[in-house]
Amino acid sequence: MLDVTLALLSALECATEGIGFANEAGLPAAVGFAIGLPAGASLLLRRRWPIAVVLVSIAITPAEMGFLLSLVGLYTLAASDVARRLTVVLAGVSVVGTFVVTFARFHQDMSQDGYHPGLWLTVFFSALMALGLSAPPVLLGLYVGARRRLVESLRERADGLERELALLADRAEERAVWARNEERTRIAREMHDVVAHRVSLMVVHAAALQAVALKDPEKASRNAGLVGDMGRQALTELREMLGVLRTSSDGAVAAQSSSADSQRLAEVAAAASARVSESVVAAAGAADEAAVGDGPCLDGLEDLVGLSRAAGMVVELCVEGEERPHGLRVESTAYRVVQEALTNVHKHAPGAKAVVRVAHREGEVALQVENGPSDGGADVGLPSGGNGLVGMRERVSALGGVFVAGVTDVGGFRVSAVIPSGEGWMAA
């Protein structure tokens, strides 16, 4: 609407001034009207072709037409994205044209009135008129164009920052999900290493009580059977809890099941705790030995092996190299690997001999737990959750080590791990 209004006003102005110019030149008024009307109406195209509009205004300057056309055209040209050099050239041509026309008209009018001003006065007045008609629209257009470009740049930067913030938010959410899953896995691994081993030994001791009861064999066998049943149930429920912890949370499914999982975890943990407590009370003598602390470092391997020996397993411990500190995380991981390997021997190879080898090397510690085939000893029926080897591999890999496990040529099983003991793990 603004462009249409300005074009109508410019067309009327140019048409009127064209009629006046035609009269002075001795031409028909229709000629001046026909020239001024389309010239003034060209202002409608100022946004698309600002250069053409300015050229039209320069072309009709000698006829003293297009005052509004010149002002608006120069403003639009300066505010557009046209090269600044071209804008300066066209503005200069417009100033020169206005100066020449003003100079000639001023001199002619003064001569008709019988007044002959000096040359410098005529030049000064003409220059003032030329600059006064051309400089303000050009300067205003340059300012508005710069403001527009600044606002557009700020808007683009704001859009870019918004996209970057959205991307960072997505990455933060992914990291949060990853951290939650890592924490769940870590908790599951810790509970499996710390709890499952001791409960497994309780079951083994209960089986031993059933086999060798010195006094009141019937009662001792009944109590030992009760301890074994409770221990097996406790292990089953603990592994059920570990399975819930290891389940990865993804989107809506995790959101819908979070409260149910929490309630389930609480119920299972409470039941498991109660059953383990009952097992400790019912098998006080056997559990006292199993309660020997398993220190989270390689210094506790002797006590760990002693627990398995007390449960009837033949275990040989071989330590090679000069003992040296390897860092808390490294020694704790090495301890857990040996612990889980011995637990698997109790479960899957009852009566088999096990050999534990530990080698202290420069910058690393190597472990190997190997057992022969089962000699047909009584199977105590320990349940297996299938997470032991996975947990050992995760622990060793997290420290940049190598873990290998598999069946030996003679039918036994071997677990091997090499864990680097760098300065980063020493600090941890």
From TrEMBL:
Protein keywords: ATP-binding, Kinase, Membrane, Nucleotide-binding, Phosphoprotein, Transferase, Transmembrane, Transmembrane helix, Two-component regulatory system
Catalytic activity: ATP + protein L-histidine = ADP + protein N-phospho-L-histidine
Gene3D superfamilies linked: 1.20.5.1930, Histidine kinase-like ATPase, C-terminal domain
SUPFAM superfamilies tied to this protein: ATPase domain of HSP90 chaperone/DNA topoisomerase II/histidine kinase
Single GO MF annotation: kinase activity
Residue intervals passing through the bilayer: 52-74, 86-106, 118-144
Enzyme class: transferase
Keyword 4Fe-4S: no
CDD domains for this protein: HATPase_UhpB-NarQ-NarX-like
EC number: 2.7.13.3
Keyword Glycoprotein recorded: no
Signal transduction histidine kinase subgroup 3 dimerisation and phosphoacceptor domain residues: 183-248
Domain of life the protein comes from: Bacteria
Protein name: histidine kinase
Source organism (scientific name): Streptomyces blastmyceticus
Lineage: Bacteria, Bacillati, Actinomycetota, Actinomycetes, Kitasatosporales
